[in-house]
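just leaving the lab so this will be short. what follows is a protein written twice so to speak, once as letters and once as structure tokens for the fold. can you read through it and tell me how you think this chain folds. thanks a lot i owe you, the record is right below.

___
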Amino acid sequence: MSGLHGISVVFDLDGTLVDSEPNYYEAGRRTLAAHGVPDFSWAEHERYVGISTRETVALWKRAYGLTASVADLLADTDRRYLELAAAGTRVYPQMRAFVELLAAEEVPMAVASGSSRAAIGAILTGTGLDAYLRTTVSADEVARGKPAPDVFLEAARRLGAAPADCVVVEDAAPGAAAARAAGMRCVAIPSVPAQADDPAFATAGLLVRGGQRAFTAADAWEWLARRNG
């Protein structure tokens, strides 16, 4: 019996399990260029990390005065992203090890993401993570995206778990805030180092300030087991 009896783990996807932000940046850059906004920078992209794609394009529409509808911008961005994701998405090695460790101990797991269902499915299938992560929730399926708790609460519902028994694994401040709002513990691994001091991360039970380069499956397992002891 593992030290995690009664615990469920809910993973964010982009920037947490997989290094997908470069693909999302490029998809956004191409979409905005096609709609008359050239030179969209990585620094500008970082402002939207952790926010659902739907909410991101709505913010673009207002910020850049785009005439296209949110639905059209979303479809355009998703199409470009899926093309890029199909060419390859890298799983963080220690995250794959962590998922496999949890699976071996039969810990219930889910993915709760701001990406579309199509994007979630494509990435999980393409990386082989779908063998372990069969319960998924897209922000498109709930009323509000992160930092609202809706996706995490829906993931808990689908797992049949109480929110207090769930641990969220996140890379972005809105996700850490959503975990707290859901009444869940959080393992935070900031994908944008400059955001490590964001107040939302201060509420995380475990904050890996060095990001993915400092994260190890063994350390995460030890922390979870200790908190569940």
Summary: The radius of gyration is 17 Å.
